[in-house]
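User: Teach me something about this protein's shape.
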Amino acid sequence: MTDMLTHTSEQDALPTMNNRIRLAVREVRETAFRALYATGVSSGEAAAAADTVTAMQLHARTGIDTLLETLDRLDSTRTPAGVSLSRNSAVDIVDHSPRSGLLSGPLAVDLALSQSRPVLVSRIDDHEAVDWYALRAASRSGTTLWLVTLDDRGRHTNATVVTAAGDMHRDVSVPTALESDVTVHDEYGGGTLVLTAPHATDASRPVHTAVERETRYRHAVSYGVFVDTAKWSRAYALGRRFLVPEANHD
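Assistant: First, the predicted structure itself:
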């Protein structure tokens, strides 16, 4: 079902509803950026990820959840955050430490848009984060992208298609013409495969359209966006690590 606006004028009059808090769009993005940057993510990566978190929160209500999961992975890893790029005869492989679609998705999407080869974001489970970055990138570049979820054996389970018009289709069947392009050996452990290809006309309706997203964004700018209070408190506390106290000088 198409994701439509759910707030009514009566709901908009309430500053807080049950366990939710109303925030400005700017607050969501700034807190996401600060929390990621304070955890060691580079400024450019943090900015791209913060944009994705904001879009996911506005349109799917999953942005803060994804942010917190990524921060947990960053805090628990014993090695510095980083990314490696390798290739075989069929695909380029992006492997991020820790494994995160929120952080490695932008690199994979931008790489796929700049070449004709598919790009695999290896061994991730936050596939949705890659989808949301790809949606913005596809509409800006005028290119349709396929984001195919692969299981541990390299077999495709479903696909998300984001179009140049700014629409997102989910659970799209992979056509026979793309079968050879989405075959990946199981040594790479699954993930999300990103590739450019036309979106064949089918009966599926987009779950998000450019018009609806623009309407929701304008609504959120005017009335705010609701976020779970406990989750927001944790994200805000992690973001405060960005503000390092100035050293005292005698």
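Now, about its shape. The longest strand covers residues 156-162. Helices lie at 9-12, 25-38, 43-59, 63-76, 101-114, 127-141, 210-223, 229-239. If you'd like, I can walk through any region in more detail.
User: That's plenty for now, thanks!
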